[in-house]
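Form 7-S
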Amino acid sequence: MPSDTTTSPVAVAKSVASAERAHAASVRMGISEIARFLQENLGQRLTARIANISDPKQVGKWASGSTVPRPEAEERLRAALQVFQLIQDAESLHTARAWMIGMNPQLEDEAPAQCIADGRRRDVMVAARAYVDGG
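Output:
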């Protein structure tokens, strides 16, 4: 009789491997490259919201390397990249974008992008891993 488990070892391995690749990307990329990637894939306004800044044009300045974000904004951008990469690695670019902006039941029906802006990076990563694992 098969065991009644909610997560298969294959799915867990997929989440772990995707998370490791996403983490590596988030620490190896420079902040201008991260800002450029997020701007291209999420848009300038959403990237600014994630960084918790009011001027979306600042994202373009970060992306070009003419200025750098404050440490708190950089932490948010790196977290957003890591989560985005985790979902993209397991699913697709389109799914990662939709996941970042959609209401998420594991995050009290808030969008992961907004939760990162609010400083709930760990909650978002837990929700992303659960999604990849099929939960």
